Amino acid sequence: MVSGNSLIFLLAISSFLSVSCISEVASLCASGALCGGVGGSSSIPLFLLSTPSTPSLSTETYPGFTTTRVYGQPDFTSNTANNGGISATSANNPTGVALDSSGNVYITEFYNNRILRFPSGSTTADKVYGQAGSFTTNTANKGGSVNENTLYAPVHLSFDVSGGLYVADAYNDRALYFPPGSTTATKVFGQPNFNSNALVPGNGTNSNWGIWGIRAGNADDVYMTDYNNNRILYYPSGSSFATRIYGAGNESNLCSTVNASSICYPTDVVVD
């Protein structure tokens, strides 16, 4: 169902402006699936990414909308990466945003190699993923070896119906699943284990070359975009192997022919 007073989140990558929250907006989305990674939320958000040609957010750019909150900056006129230093209120190249069923906001930060959780209504994070609980560090894989608690350039994220969190961990060439409330992943996709981040050769059902987009379905299944292999992978519930491939219709990474079955460098996916 579409809420008549939906929330809109606008993600300004080039200005490091993280997220603006806009309220009192008429219904804008045909379904929650078309509006970003929300699992069981009563508010239906719309996520919009800015481009380098539109580095800031304003009511002039989106007439009729009133911006009420900014994440990642102290005010609406700042755009410095990690303004004031890396902290629970800073941001550096935010790439994804999602709401959980309690209205908490989750934001992936590509260059800070982390995910921040903001309590509903707050612009100060109270939980961090990928940095061992520290709000003041941002090294890839926490400066060490890859494992179930680290991230390297996370992009998109999505909640499933039970509140579990899926994250596209792009530069580790994998996707992770975090159980509700936990910052330690219990499932990995695209790698044989949590301690590997090597490019898995080939274009098979257990390999990938840069997972960017990710979206949980309604039956504990998940869809992922395999960016450099020019395809989208479908994983059924409980499986770490894809059983369906969208793009070339087979295990091919060709991106030279444009037709009804081809996909070229997919960055995100939605589920209706």
From TrEMBL:
InterPro entries: NHL_repeat. Keywords: Repeat. The keyword Ion transport does not apply. Gene3D superfamilies: 2.40.10.500. NHL repeats lie at residues 92-121. This is NHL repeat protein. The lineage of its organism: Bacteria, Pseudomonadati, Spirochaetota, Spirochaetia, Leptospirales.
